[in-house]
Design goal:
The chain is of the alpha+beta class. The protein has two domains: 3-90 and 126-294 and 329-447, Outer membrane efflux proteins (OEP) (Up-down Bundle), CATH 1.20.1600.10; 91-125 and 298-328, Outer membrane efflux proteins (OEP) (Single Sheet). Helices cover 68% and strands 12% of the residues. The protein has helices at residues 3-20, 28-49, 55-65, 68-86, 130-192, 199-236, 259-269, 271-292, 331-375, 380-397, 402-437; strands at 93-104, 111-125, 252-254, 298-308, 312-321, 442-444. Strands 1-2-4-5 form a four-stranded antiparallel sheet, with no helix packed on it. A two-stranded antiparallel ribbon has the order 3-6. A hairpin with a 3-residue loop joins strand 4 and strand 5 (312-321).
């Protein structure tokens, strides 16, 4: 309930009590006290609403400040480093030998001493296509990291938006519960100061007291819901958990979309499917790489050696080195990569079915909740609020029995809670569909 509407309702209630001329007006001090309490609460809420933040503003803050984003950003940086490493050619290897040689003929002839020097330089060349395959695998890792970041950002925005609207709904329920509880408290205070004659007035007083306690409990539960949701919302926005925050949330309007359209969009845009598709493609490249690694890398490079003992001897040439694939044909890695590829294919198929199921379920939820919200649109809530005020005035005049009075107040408070639950469920379903399909089926009415 907005502060303006609530304040207007309280003023009408006080005016009616002042002009009714019934026995309940004989003690205006109690009613006046509660009315002032209402007005004080409304003034506080109205002043705080000036500094209130919208759910979309909180979403922008979370997307800028949330510390978990750094994990995914670092993952992208690591993947970029892997890409750079994959396409880097190995460094050449330099080998050198320095020593001393003593040479002596077996026949006892000449002998000599001298230095020994040997140098060689080799460059390893991978088998053709191997570097390109490693680069492709690294590029898939980079694509996965980027998809995970996008998915987290959308999920984070949905969670912040859900918490913001949950706090706003809890605030509305708290105000409504406080309004109804204060009505019953005012009546209880009046009845407590009147002499009771007979059983019926005593029982009515006890019923009013019991309902006052019940409505106060609902008010406290709404306040607890605000506190718990606020702690999580603050942390998502990188704020202290107990930081005060006011939410200025507009009503949400939901759009309709056919199930075939949603399923088609999900097959193309669902993050879970896109991630499994990249993993499946990457696993195919890994199979190709394991087959390529059956063939050895070749090291080629010049060498030079010099010996200076009895005679001076020098050698220079070109050396080639490669392992012989006699015992290890990389068959184990090939079999493993093929099995992983089959797993990735099965995971993709299961994910597609899972996404289709979730799309169908959330589409059904959104359709049902949207229809119920449409039935409550217009001035339904205002009618129930007016009925609650009318019942209060007429009960004081003795024109309405207690059962109707209590039931009217309960129905008004129940409608406030039901509408909040419908909005919450519909928003959750719409945001889940946005994550699955990329289609935004909700928006604030003020923006339309």
């Amino acid at each position: 309930m907005s502060p303006r509407i609530f304040c207007s309702a309280v003023l009408r209630l006080h005016k009616a009590n002042a002009l009714s001329g019934s026995d309940f007006s004989c003690l205006p001090m109690s009613i006046s006290t509660h009315t002032k309490s209402f007005l004080a609460s409304i003034i506080v809420l109205a002043g705080a609403s000036v500094l209130a933040e919208t759910p979309e503003a909180l979403v922008r803050q979370a997307l800028q400040r949330n510390p978990e984003l750094n994990f995914f950003v670092a993952e992208i940086a690591a993947a970029k480093g892997t890409v750079r490493t994959a396409k880097t050619v190995r460094n050449p290897e330099l080998s050198s030998e320095f020593g001393y040689k003593n040479s002596r003929e077996n026949s006892g002839g000449a002998s000599g001493d001298g230095a020994v020097l040997a140098l060689s330089l080799s460059q390893t060349f991978e088998y053709p296509g191997r570097i390109a395959l490693r680069k492709a695998i690294a590029n898939h890792d980079l694509a996965l990291a980027e998809l995970h970041l996008q998915q987290f950002r959308l999920t984070l925005a949905a969670r912040v938006r859900t918490l913001a609207y949950a706090i706003s709904s809890a605030q509305q329920k708290s105000v409504a519960a406080r309004e109804v509880a204060s009505r019953f408290q005012a009546l209880s205070d009046v009845l407590a100061q009147r002499p009771t004659a007979g059983v019926t007035p005593q029982l009515e007083a006890r019923i009013i007291d019991a309902n006052t306690l019940a409505f106060r409990r609902q008010e406290r539960e709404a306040a607890l819901a605000i506190t718990t949701a606020l702690a999580e919302l603050n942390q998502l926005c990188e704020r202290p958990a107990d930081a005060p925050l006011k939410i200025a949330a507009s009503k949400v309007q939901f759009d309709a979309a056919s199930l075939p359209r949603l399923l088609s969009a999900a097959r193309a845009n669902a993050f879970d499917i896109r991630i499994r598709q990249v993993e499946f493609a990457q696993q195919g490249v890994k199979v190709a790489l394991s087959k390529n690694e059956r063939f050895p890398a070749i090291s080629v490079g010049p060498f030079y050696s010099m010996e200076n003992a009895i005679d001076r001897e020098q050698r220079a040439g070109l050396g080639i080195s490669l392992p012989l694939p006699l015992w290890d044909r990389n068959l184990g890695n090939i079999a493993t990569s093929k099995a992983r590829q089959k797993q990735a294919e099965a995971s993709l198929a299961m994910t597609e079915r899972e996404v289709e199921r979730r799309v169908a379920q959330n589409a059904a939820i959104l359709t049902a909740k949207r229809a119920q919200i449409d039935n409550l649109k217009g001035n339904e809530l205002a009618k129930f609020r007016e009925a609650a005020e009318t019942a209060d005035r007429n009960y004081q005049l003795g024109a309405v029995p207690l059962t109707i009075y209590v039931e009217t107040q309960k129905q008004y408070l129940g409608l406030v809670g039901a509408l909040a639950e419908l909005q919450k469920d519909a928003l959750q379903a719409a945001q889940e569909l946005e994550i699955l399909t990329g289609l935004k089926l909700y928006g604030e009415e003020a923006q339309r």
